[in-house]
Design a protein that fits this description.
The chain has 104 residues and is of the alpha+beta class. Helix content is 29%, strand content 21%. It is globular and about 35 Å long. It starts with 14 loop residues before the first strand and ends in a 6-residue tail after the last helix. This is Phosphocarrier protein HPr.
């Protein structure tokens, strides 16, 4: 997936980013990865995540890509989004991670 542009003046191209630390002792395994991707798919935005400062950005709407991050407990997940619901999407995903992938 290509890098998101640094800035945009169009509201449909709004950018947002955030981060949260994985609390689950087993890390980002299958069940939380599916919850994360399901929530990402519910938003009208291009959403990417990465594990750690140096991690590779992956499509947050792809369960396979998210699980391949192999993010462990205590690792920071960075989230970035572009599109009409970018801000809403980032806030929702960060909140999900902070809740240890539990429903509200």
């Amino acid at each position: 997936m290509s890098e998101l542009p640094a800035e945009s003046s169009d509201a449909k191209e709004a950018l947002a980013s955030g981060a949260a630390t994985i609390q689950d002792p087993t890390g980002l395994h299958a069940r939380p990865a599916v919850k994360l991707t399901k929530l990402a798919k519910a938003h009208d935005a291009t959403i990417e995540i990465r594990a750690g400062e140096e991690g590779k950005w992956v499509n947050a709407k792809s369960p396979n890509a998210v699980m391949k991050l192999k993010a462990g407990s205590g690792e920071i997940l960075f989230v970035r989004a572009q599109g009409a619901q970018a801000d809403e999407a980032v806030k929702a995903l960060v909140a999900l991670i902070e809740r240890d992938f539990e429903a509200e």
